[in-house]
Amino acid sequence: MALKISVIGTGYLGATHAACMSSLGFEVVGVDVDTSKITSLNAGKIPFYEPGLEELLAQEVQSGRLTFSSDFNAIKDCDVHFICVGTPQVKDGLAADLTYVNGALDSIAKIIKDGSLVVGKSTVPVGTAAALRERLLKINPKLDLAWNPEFLREGFAVEDTLKPNRLVVGVANSKAEETLKQVYAKSLSEQTPWVVADLPTSELVKVAANSFLATKISFINAMAEICEAAGGDVTVLAKAIGYDPRIGNKFLQAGIGFGGGCLPKDIRAFMARAQELGAEQAVEFLREIDSINMRARARVIELVRKDLSDDLRGKKIAVLGAAFKPDSDDVRDSPALDIAVQIQAAGANVIVHDPKAMPNAQKKFPVLKFADSIEKCVEGAELVLHLTEWKIYREINPAALIKLVKNPILIDGRNALDRSEWQKAGWHVRALGRSDTAI
Ligand code: UGA
Questions:
Q1: Of 164, 196, 228, which one is at a domain's C-terminal end?
Q2: Containing domain of residue 127, as a range?
Q3: By C-alpha distance, which of 352, 423, 363 is closest to 390?
Q4: What's the distance, CA 212 to chain centroid?
Q5: Is residue 416 within 6 Å of ligand 1 at its C-beta?
Q6: Are 347 and 311 part of one and the same domain?
Q7: Domain check: are 192 and 242 in the same one?
Q8: Distance 154 CA to ligand 1 centre (A)
Q9: Ligand 1 atom showing the smallest separation from residue 389 Cα
């Protein structure tokens, strides 16, 4: 008989997982304590921007296979329960806040039927899964818990869920593995690598992967600093080292660095957990990764000061981009927004544009000013800052835009615009790690 699946927590991860599991033919119930989220999801609407997800969700809700409820009893007869709640950074430290994960387990432990499997997907400090499993088995020894970390990227959430580059399952016994094999039968039939691990290793795979990605980005941003000092060009350097397949050319885009709801908080939580384990020295380098990353934001502001003046008061600065990356309306720890706010705090007259993230940015920083078109944003600007590499910004006609600004100065914080085209149109172009573009 086909498995019935529940998803606890219907945020970014949960909503995506629920819609994707339903699209594979499973009956899926998503539960959340947030009733407004549930109402919106049942109407086939997602409260955030993710390409392709809303269409898929609406189609699955329509099919009748996918339902959402704020009543946890709705998951009673499900066989597999995916915990997809958030683990944000605690307010007063670096560690991850496990309140929601613990809460989710407590809410379901006494409700779910014997023989069912709880599967954690949230990113958690190593050791959490084993502790949760012990707690669950104490409540009902006929249940089991496995861990199945999620590697989806915002902007590619559906694709990454339905066609993952690997599936990792942390299990305490083979029955759990068999159940998960049924859930992921389609991916397995497509030869997706299947990695079976113990619980701690499966938790570590996730934080190790995010730490590696963060390290790659900070590495290239450190090289950008050296290129600036030595008169080199980091984009050429990245291209050249990327041809070595052992290095690879992905995640070597130098610029204002990483943000979002995952990489920054995950490396910090990893450091905090390593310290608890007495192994802090092993990940001490992540502190440096974090500082290089935060320094990239400060270095862009330095460039702005160099190009305009130390005193930014009253200077009109156009900021293109507020999301932490393109194809997302997420502004959590967004480098772009952070820079915009810092420049504004220094007295500049900042106008921000973003194709999707303006409502979230406005909610978070009501002091910022926003423009609903690129043209309005740059009108009379003394400097244009390109901070999130949306496709629409790459498609800008620099010859047309130059007519609207006061000074034709562009700082490309993402090294993503066609520098020679902008220069040809008369712009002074500056970017991190490319000292030859100095004015
Ligand atoms: C990241 C991981 O890539 C996913 O595999 C993981 O599942 C997810 O976190 C998570 O833990 O849930 P995501 O936060 O969506 O995914 O964003 P990324 O695509 O990793 O980008 C992170 C940040 O790095 C963005 O701010 C991006 O602009 C920046 N970045 C990326 C660079 O500055 N340079 C690059 O070359 C690549």
A1: 196
A2: 4-196
A3: 352
A4: 15
A5: no
A6: yes
A7: no
A8: 8
A9: 28
